[in-house]
Design goal:
The protein is mainly alpha-helical. The chain is built from 13 helices and 3 strands; from the N terminus they run H-H-H-H-H-H-H-E-E-E-H-H-H-H-H-H. A hairpin with a 4-residue loop joins strand 1 and strand 2. About 0% of the residues have low confidence.
């Protein structure tokens, strides 16, 4: 399976015209509900795009009907993945539900069904692939130690890319640092800014410790964020971390991107018999539906092992 790439899109028309004020109010509503900034941006951009593309010249949202939504979904499905279109559908659905509650307008999406999403198995890493990634980061240079630590933490914890990028580090002030290497614990902030504590392996803690020794000599060492760019560059963004992981993968011929480690961690946990409830806590999931999505490959592996035990008598 190829690594997901940034989708190349035509410049969008997102001028909602006379329908813009309600989108601004919807943005305020989402912020008051504690939604993550990324969620707020994605939802409001989806609504503005729909308004600009399907409702130009219309004076009010009351003029939007089910057919407008259906034709918009059909247009999107002809150009984008079903998962992406499903996200657009959910954004519009939340907007119209909010608008109906706020203004008493009819909900044009009431009774509509969301696009069907085909969920494929995300391949987990093989042992050989993980070994190659580790060797690709071999060396005592700053970038090598940093990338080795990033990959080790992703492998050991399965945290989200945004959570990894948001880890703070203040060696002289434990209260403002998210890392406790002795306890092998990291505080991360998930969706909606909710904090939780994740564990990492001894190998990951050792890789981070090696990176911290190199980081102490970095010109930007006083920055409050853990991951720094090479040379004199400041903190790495989520995009910068993504590029670093993908670059190491290309060096050793492994399709590597941060979210693949999340699937791999979940697969490994379940495949080894780890409790599902503990996995939900470690991964920061509020809904058990995520277990079905991330545990698909592990269920398949368990089923094959069960086959051997039942049908051939092998353990």
């Amino acid at each position: 399976m190829a690594a997901p790439r940034a989708r190349s899109r035509q410049p969008r028309q997102v001028d909602a015209g006379a329908l813009g004020p309600e989108i601004g109010s919807f943005r305020l509503h989402l912020a008051a509900e504690g939604k993550a900034p990324k969620t707020i941006r994605l939802y409001t951009e989806a609504v503005a795009w729909f308004a600009a593309a399907r409702l130009p010249g219309r004076a009010s949202w009351e003029q939007a009907g089910p057919r407008d939504v259906q034709e918009w979904m059909a247009w999107l499905l002809g150009r984008y993945s079903d998962a992406y279109v499903s996200n657009q559908y959910r954004a519009l659905q939340q907007f119209f539900k909010w608008l109906a509650a706020e203004e008493g307008l009819p909900d044009p999406m009431a009774g509509l069904r969301p696009p069907r999403v085909t969920v494929g198995l995300v391949p987990v890493f093989t042992g050989a692939e993980l070994d190659r990634l580790q060797r690709a980061c071999a060396g005592r240079g700053f970038a090598e130690r940093r990338d080795a630590a990033i990959i080790a933490v992703l492998r050991a914890s399965g945290i989200r890319l945004s959570e990894l990028a948001g880890i703070r580090y203040q060696p002289g002030d434990p209260g403002r640092s998210d890392i406790d290497l002795w306890q092998r614990e990291i505080i991360v902030r998930g969706k909606g800014g909710r904090p939780r504590i994740v564990k990492v392996s001894h190998d990951a803690a050792r890789a981070v410790d090696r990176y911290l020794r190199a980081r102490a000599r970095h010109p930007q060492a006083r920055q409050p964020w853990l991951w720094l760019g090479a040379g004199s560059r400041g903190p790495l963004t989520a995009s910068g971390i993504y590029q670093a992981v993908a670059r190491r993968g290309r060096q050793c011929g492994v399709q590597a991107w941060p979210h693949r480690f999340r699937h791999h961690f979940s697969h490994t946990w379940l495949e080894r018999g780890g409790p599902e409830g503990d996995l939900m806590e470690l991964n920061g999931w509020a809904s058990p539906q995520m277990l079905a999505r991330y545990g698909a490959s592990a269920r398949s592996a368990r089923a094959r092992r069960t086959y051997d035990r039942v049908m051939t008598g092998q353990p």
